[in-house]
Design goal:
Length: 181
């Protein structure tokens, strides 16, 4: 028996643009109101309007991961997301990780394991590792490789990057154990 197709209800979507339109972004826990053209990417707004230059503009076509940020805890390529699509979501960048002048354990692990060469891809790598560890605090090497599969390192520092991700998991676990006592 065939099911009858049902026409979806039409929802009136407000038209924005073509000129600049105000949007409200929550970046690293801070509210920002920015006036942007609807065609502007999140990456350009972060870098040019908010001065957050940690996410790098490299390929600008969603293939390298240098611009990776977290949107509601999920890694995204900021070069492929329109800023107005991110309105209302929680955006986290590399600049939001350190607290009170102290590096985040993932950042510390990257330093301890010497998990960078030129460092251009490092912020995106770290943000992808953060998303992984937030959802899976005890990843395997395969989990790490899968989580970082969208982040390219042109210098080839992958073995140390993978080691740093696993070290970060250890540091976070030990921090959690210390704080629970």
């Amino acid at each position: 028996m065939a099911t009858k197709a049902v026409r979806p209800k039409r929802v009136k979507i407000p038209v924005r643009g073509p000129g600049k339109t105000p949007i409200a972004l929550i970046v690293n826990g801070q509210a920002h109101e920015v006036l942007v053209e609807p065609r502007r990417t999140l990456l350009d707004v972060l870098r040019k309007d908010l001065g957050l230059t940690g996410a790098k503009k490299a390929c600008d076509e969603g293939t390298c991961g240098a611009c990776t940020v977290l949107l509601d805890g999920k890694p995204i390529y900021a070069c492929m997301a329109l800023a107005l699509e991110c309105e209302g979501g929680a955006i986290e960048t590399i600049e939001g990780l350190a607290r009170d002048g102290k590096l985040h354990p993932i950042q510390q692990a990257f330093i301890e394991e010497d998990a960078l060469q030129c460092g251009f891809c490092t912020p995106g790598q770290i943000m992808s590792v953060k998303a992984l560890l937030d959802s899976n605090p005890n990843p395997t090497l395969e989990d790490v490789k899968r989580a970082l599969s969208g982040n390219l390192c042109r210098c080839g520092a992958y073995p140390k990057i993978f080691k740093a991700a696993l070290r970060a998991a250890e540091l976070l676990e030990s921090l959690k154990a210390r704080n629970s006592h």
